Amino acid sequence: MTYTFKPSGCCAKAIKITIDNNLITDVKFSGGCHGNTMGIGRLIQNRDVEEVSKTLRGIICRNGTSCPDQLALALEEIISQQSAA
Hints:
Distance between the termini: 14 Å
CATH class: Alpha Beta
Shape: globular
Strand order of the largest sheet: 1-2-3-4
Number of domains: 1
């Protein structure tokens, strides 16, 4: 399943996350520092949604958040949606 999240307070304009069987199979950032966001995407590929969320939550760049922190928020939103279903 693919989700699109609109982050706030960071350079990225959108985060597109593909999840299969509770594993992150792909992440694409629109905007943000290209090398950093591409690196994040590769590092978290095929890792558990909850594990990645806990790892990235609270990383601060500016405005009290960061691209990784916003990704964690997106993953928390996905986890919440899955629990409600």
